[in-house]
């Protein structure tokens, strides 16, 4: 096969960082890439990739899946910008991608507002509109009241749309990062420089993007035997591996040990900013309807989707943040500021399922309930020291180190490879055709939130 073919495969692997492709499909791309480059695979890697690709190729539906291969993306303001170009003379037609750029949307609102004497933020229909005399003074006296009102309403709606776009883009980033860390932010050049690095990062990210399952047990962990085999290849060629790229998805002590202090500091800065952003999202969800903190069971009015997405992102960001602080030798910082973990909300029926099967509330729930709220800790309004976390963990029999409360979690042990099941809102079904039929009829509606809420991350 040609190098052109290998380049195409690398680009497909890179595109998968922003998609929700099945790990089997990514494993097939990895195997095709190694074949295109004439790479001789060691027995462990060949066996692991063979398991994944064999399941995909021998599937009754030959790789077909009923599940979406993309995350739900925010809807931009393309329609509103098109309407503004029709109504306002000083607003030119804009390309489609402008509707996804908050800065360009705001610039259009401000520019169009100048045409009708409206300042940005003046949205009160009773107080902020201009009357006939004021319109004449502003130089738009020829504009009828009806036409003026039409333009005023559009700009008011566009400001509301802008706020939704910003919020949904923020949630989109939170969902992507919570599932797959920051691998999706990598530029193509560094990602594709070493095919072995690209293969590992793409496969592990695909595993991280897997959907949660409706269960009262543990969710599947991303690091499986296929990921481990690909990682062992990186270990065998440490000089060739781009460890900075690997650290975007797999921040173990071993990986971070290959990075320079400058690279570590850069990653720490990015995760610190993201941690604060997620804390704001958690606080917003909390303030809109306070949660039952002692049980973390969903109550009417709780925005469980936003909370659970943010909680998962907090868990991922916090894990990377702890690992980077430790590698930089700044564990002393945690002596003063050690924000706690955040649990996801659990549906009442899942909580009942836990009790019926002999379980109960996770001990971490009790620790979370006694510690200061994390957004208050990051703002310095309340203290949460490492010694305080250790004391609370001790009261409930939780190991603060092994549980990830006061130190980075130990490196994950690889789990056995298991084929990705077809799911309908988190519920396993027999095959893709059955999944499509059940989804179209609305069966299992609402189980997705329950599945997503059933596990700590």
Mean pLDDT: 86
Helix and strand run: HHHHHHHHHHHHHHHHHHHEEHH
The largest sheet has its strands arranged as: 1-2
Helix content: 55-70%
The best one-word shape is globular
Tally of individual helices: 21
> What proportion strand?
under 5%
Low-confidence parts, pLDDT < 50 over ≥5 residues? 57-62, 443-457
How many strands, which pairing sense, and closed or not: the largest β-sheet?
Answer: 2 strands, antiparallel
Gyration radius, rounded: 25 Å
Number of strands: 2
* Distance from first to last alpha carbon: 42 Å
Structural class: mainly alpha
Give a structural overview.
With 457 residues, this protein is mostly helical. 56% of the residues lie in helices and 1% in strands. It contains 21 helices and two strands. It has helices at residues 3-16, 23-36, 43-57, 78-87, 102-115, 132-137, 145-180, 188-192, 195-208, 225-236, 243-247, 253-256, 261-288, 304-327, 332-336, 348-356, 363-370, 374-378, 386-395, 432-441, 447-453, and strands at 422-424, 427-429. A hairpin with a 2-residue loop joins strand 1 (422-424) and strand 2. The longest helix is centred in the middle third of the chain and has 36 residues, at 145-180. The two termini are 42 Å apart. Residues 57-62 and 443-457 have low confidence and may be disordered.
Top keywords for this entry?
457 residues; mainly alpha; two-stranded antiparallel ribbon; 2 strands; disordered C terminus
Give the arrangement of secondary structure elements.
Layout: H1 3-16, H2 23-36, H3 43-57, H4 78-87, H5 102-115, H6 132-137, H7 145-180, H8 188-192, H9 195-208, H10 225-236, H11 243-247, H12 253-256, H13 261-288, H14 304-327, H15 332-336, H16 348-356, H17 363-370, H18 374-378, H19 386-395, E1 422-424, E2 427-429, H20 432-441, H21 447-453
């Amino acid at each position: 096969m040609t190098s052109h073919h290998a380049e195409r495969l690398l680009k497909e692997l890179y595109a998968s960082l922003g998609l929700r492709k099945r790990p089997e499909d990514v494993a097939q791309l990895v195997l095709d890439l190694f074949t295109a480059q004439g790479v001789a695979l060691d027995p462990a890697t060949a066996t692991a990739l063979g398991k994944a690709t064999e399941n995909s190729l021998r599937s009754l539906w030959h790789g077909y899946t009923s599940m979406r291969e993309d995350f739900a993306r925010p809807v931009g303001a393309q329609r509103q910008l098109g309407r503004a170009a029709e109504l306002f003379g000083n607003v030119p037609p804009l390309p489609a991608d402008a509707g996804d750029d908050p800065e360009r949307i705001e610039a259009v609102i401000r520019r169009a507002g100048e045409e009708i004497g409206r300042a940005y933020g003046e949205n009160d229909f009773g107080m902020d509109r201009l009357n006939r005399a004021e319109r004449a003074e502003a130089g738009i006296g020829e504009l009828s009241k009806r036409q003026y009102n039409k333009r005023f309403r559009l700009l008011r709606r566009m400001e509301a749309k802008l706020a939704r776009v910003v919020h949904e883009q923020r949630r989109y980033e939170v969902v992507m990062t919570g599932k797959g860390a920051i691998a999706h932010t990598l530029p193509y050049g560094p990602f594709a420089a070493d095919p072995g690095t690209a293969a590992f990062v793409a496969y592990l990210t695909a595993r991280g993007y897997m959907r949660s399952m409706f269960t009262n047990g543990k969710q599947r962990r991303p690091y499986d035997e296929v990921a481990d085999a690909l990682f062992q290849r990186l270990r065998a060629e440490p000089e060739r591996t781009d460890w900075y790229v690997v650290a975007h998805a797999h921040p173990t002590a071993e990986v971070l040990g290959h990075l320079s202090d400058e690279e570590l500091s850069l990653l720490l800065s990015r995760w610190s900013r993201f941690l604060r952003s997620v804390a704001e999202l958690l606080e917003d969800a909390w303030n809109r309807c306070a949660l039952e903190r002692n049980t973390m069971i969903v109550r009417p009015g709780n925005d469980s989707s936003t909370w659970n997405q943010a909680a998962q992102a907090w868990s991922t960001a916090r894990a990377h943040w702890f690992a980077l602080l430790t590698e930089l030798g700044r564990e002393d910082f945690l002596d003063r500021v050690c924000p706690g973990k955040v649990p996801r909300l659990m549906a009442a029926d899942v909580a009942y399922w836990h009790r019926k099967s002999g379980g109960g509330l996770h001990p971490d729930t009790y620790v979370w309930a006694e510690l200061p709220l994390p957004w208050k800790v990051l703002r310095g309004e309340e203290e949460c020291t490492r010694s305080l976390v250790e004391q609370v963990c001790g009261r409930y029999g939780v190991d603060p180190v092994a549980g990830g409360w006061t130190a980075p979690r130990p490196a994950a042990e690889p789990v056995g490879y298991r084929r990705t099941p077809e799911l309908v809102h988190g519920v396993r079904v027999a095959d893709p055709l059955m999944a499509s039929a059940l989804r179209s009829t609305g069966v299992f509606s609402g189980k997705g939130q329950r599945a997503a809420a059933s596990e700590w991350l």
